[in-house]
Amino acid sequence: ERGERIQHLVLDPTVSKPISFDPDGTLWDFETVMRLSTSLALEELADHDPIAASQLDVDRVVSVRDRIANEWTSSVISLKLVRFGGFKQALIEAGRPNDDLAEHINKTYLHHRYANIVPYDDVLPTLTALRERYKIGALTNGNSYLERVGMEQLFDFAVLASEQGVSEPDPGIFHITAEMAGYRVDELLHVGDSLVDEVIGASDVGARAVWINRICIAASPEHMPEFQIISLSTLIDWLIG
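^ that's the sequence the OP posted. Answer follows.
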């Protein structure tokens, strides 16, 4: 189905419950930021090694990065190391191996990855309104440090999987998130754009979960979310009125 679906979410208005958001893809367009930052990193590469840069483009670097991530054996992926590994391997495959340059390009990528984040239009009004009544947190498998995005003042707590030893959809990460907020996991409401890892993962452990489906893709029959929205502003209507 497309758009808002299934039922109206209701929380007890007399009890301040925690709401966690997975930032990348939920609060901002991660895919666009990632590709732009990769492009700018390749421009930096061209200044240092134009031969290597001439053999690489965004799609190839992203493909190598994804391959490195899929080969990662740890239960928690360090995206910073994956990015570095991706640039390192891309230079190797371009016939221009250079670990120091890969590290420099990775730092360039990370700089732009934070500098170019722009929240969706519905984010600041929604977080501001919800924070008057609920504890607001961030839960991410990535490396979106809120202070580097300039949004830390809108959140009461943050959980980074890389610091906890478990990641979404592992049940443990949702228990940790609830505990950090001072509640049980069945009192947690989690909002994310990844249907399986974030939404179904949270639901399976007993939390409430909302799928933010901004591009209106169809959910598979075996992974139907309890709640689905296309804009975070719907949460204001549901939870505050």
